[in-house]
Design brief:
7-stranded mixed sheet; Beta Polymerase, domain 2; two-stranded antiparallel sheet; alpha+beta; 21 helices; 431 residues
Length: 431
């Protein structure tokens, strides 16, 4: 495993040197358009934020943000009659998105915040790169890079990045009061870069401003949580006591952070794949209504609600039905499928202290051995036996399947015919 990771890292380093993202044809075209008629030694656009940070740390680059001295109107004008499509996403904040070959690039005008209320900011456009860097959140997000890979780093973010330090630009309290979401972003970046110790003054500034999170929209908070729960080292949140305490005060519903340790210990692949929905489930689901309160409070998506309900309802069954993973295992695999049953087993390992890795492996081996037969009775079989009413056919299929499962997948044809004959005599209104 270690050799594989070393090979992957080596490959990424070679790829970064030989084929850096900024040399792609589409990006070169984009900068050609932006730099048309530019003055000598006049820097009109540079990469900034996550793409630069990830490039420097050999991470996969998914979003590309570009800072520019041009206003949104000037950017739109520059891309007229080009192969790029321009989408107005946040013109009032100085941002537009340009698209080519399904690739999106967000271009934002250099700016400074002139007024903030902890949620929104009034901005003033500028052509001063130093001024633009001062209004960003963390030093590691204020590293700029030109189209040739040359770094401009006015806040010394590269140094902090090498040290795995997440540091607010300027005064931490001031940065937080500009946008309280930065508290959650601080936690996310600390998890990502494995910050075990945090600056005491920063932690104090966060504690004094925690109530500000209540003023944020549920949508913005959930978006940050989804990004956080995608992190492969999400368990790092428990390794930093300051982060853990702040997180629990901000989100008291996530009362089961300690379960994440077991999640990272799963030794069998593809049992419980990490998705944000799975992490939400591990942190929220219990035998009470904890997850339902969270869903109501944050108005979560149907997808997340469905995943939480799946784990919650089946967790209750496992706790209440002693044969769920024993005599009834084959039936439950038939109802839910092997993938979902394995997910439940992985979830059980994370949440139950007496469910050991040995127990986990035993059940997984048992699941892999089981072959589920195909339900032998069809609608055509029922019609051939003289039952033609559509509603009755559907009802008969449900009864037959239930009896088939109850007989350990061994319902004789003569018994199936008896059931069909009983359904024939039923009043449709009573079905």
């Amino acid at each position: 495993m270690e050799n594989t990771l070393e090979n992957i890292n080596f490959f990424h380093k070679i790829k970064k040197i030989l084929f850096p993202f900024y040399k792609s044809k589409d990006i070169q075209k984009l900068f050609d358009i932006l730099e048309k008629n530019k003055g000598k030694n006049n820097q009109v656009a540079m990469f900034v934020g996550g793409c630069v940070r990830k490039f420097l740390t050999n991470e996969n680059i998914d979003d590309i943000d570009i800072a520019s001295i041009f206003t949104p109107e000037q950017i739109k004008e520059k891309f007229l009659d080009s192969n790029f499509k321009v989408v107005e996403t946040g013109v009032e904040h100085g941002s537009v998105v340009v698209i080519i070959n399904s690739k999106k690039f967000e271009i934002t005008t250099l700016r400074e915040d002139v007024k903030t209320d902890g949620r929104h900011a009034d901005v003033l456009f500028t052509n001063d790169w130093q001024q633009d860097s001062k209004r960003r959140d963390f030093t590691i997000n204020a590293i700029y890079m030109d189209r040739r890979g040359k770094i401009y780093d006015p806040q010394n973010g590269s140094y902090d990045l090498k040290k795995n330090k997440v540091k607010f630009i300027g005064n931490a309290a001031s940065r937080i009061e500009e946008d309280y979401l930065r508290i959650i972003r601080f936690i996310r970046f600390c998890i990502h870069y494995g910050c075990i110790l945090s600056d005491p003054l920063t932690i104090e500034a966060i504690k004094l401003n925690l109530n500000g999170i209540k003023n944020l929209s549920q949508e913005r908070i959930l978006s940050e949580l989804y990004k956080m729960f995608k992190l492969k080292n999400i368990s790092n949140i428990s390794k930093n006591k300051d982060l853990k305490n702040i997180f629990l005060v901000a989100f008291p519903e996530f009362k089961y952070l300690d379960r994440l340790e077991n999640f990272t210990h799963l030794e069998i692949k593809n049992i419980l794949p990490q998705t944000p929905e799975v992490i939400f489930s591990i942190l929220l689901v219990d035998e009470k209504d904890n997850f339902e309160y969270f869903c109501h409070k944050y108005k979560v998506s149907n997808k997340l609600k469905k995943e939480l309900s799946f784990f919650a309802s089946n967790y209750t069954k496992i706790r209440n039905e002693k044969n769920y993973l024993k005599k009834d295992l084959k039936k439950n695999i038939y109802n839910l499928g092997k993938i979902n049953i394995k997910k439940l087993i992985g979830f059980l390992y994370c949440v139950e202290k007496n469910f050991s890795i040995i127990s986990l492996k035993k059940v997984i081996i048992e699941i892999d051995k089981i072959e589920i037969p195909k339900f032998p009775y069809t609608g055509q079989f029922i019609i051939n036996k003289g039952l033609e009413d559509g509603k009755k056919i559907g009802f008969a299929l449900k009864v037959l399947e239930k009896e088939w499962l109850g007989s350990n997948f061994n319902l004789k044809e003569k018994d199936a015919i008896l059931i069909i004959n009983k359904v024939k005599k039923l009043n449709v209104l009573n079905i």
